[in-house]
Amino acid sequence: MQRVIKLEEVDSNGFKVGFIDAIYRNGLLFLNQIRVNERVRGMGYGRNLLTRLLSLGASLGANRLEGNFRPDSGALLSARVFYQHMGISIYRGMLYKPL
Ligand SMILES: CC(C)(COP(=O)(O)OP(=O)(O)OC[C@H]1O[C@@H](n2cnc3c(N)ncnc32)[C@H](O)[C@@H]1OP(=O)(O)O)[C@@H](O)C(=O)NCCC(=O)NCCS
Predict the structure, then answer these.
(1) What is the pTM of this model?
(2) CATH class for the domain made up of 2-98
(3) What is the pLDDT of residues 66-88, one digit of tens each?
(4) Which sequence spans correspond to the domains of the chain?
(5) Measuring CA to CA, how many Å separate 10 from each of 44, 51, 70, 78, 86?
């Protein structure tokens, strides 16, 4: 079973402030992209998106999260710290977290 997952996060006024997209297949949850609007970074939206993705992935049967570590230019350090805070390892340009 393969499933494309796209989740959005909105602010208190209902405006879209970020999104995450991933693919689930055969126990693997593969993170394609996560992005939060620059003006609202550091407010917990990224954590919410990733937490929602991980719980959906687990309910589908995922046993691990993987992805490519490809931050925006200028966002390298913040993306690294973000994944660290989320318990995700970065090794040789790849993201990894057992679920
Ligand atoms: C990476 C990104 C999605 C994080 O989203 P965010 O909404 O800013 O993250 P949050 O506010 O939910 O932060 C989650 C945790 O990471 C930490 N964190 C995030 N950015 C941080 C920074 N620049 N410095 C220190 N800590 C940071 C927060 O303190 C928080 O930790 P805590 O919950 O343990 O206190 C966002 O910065 C982004 O869109 N970056 C540009 C796109 C990009 O490079 N995506 C990654 C592709 S690989």
Answers:
(1) 0.96
(2) alpha beta
(3) 999 999 888 889 999 999 999 99
(4) 2-98
(5) 12, 15, 24, 21, 20
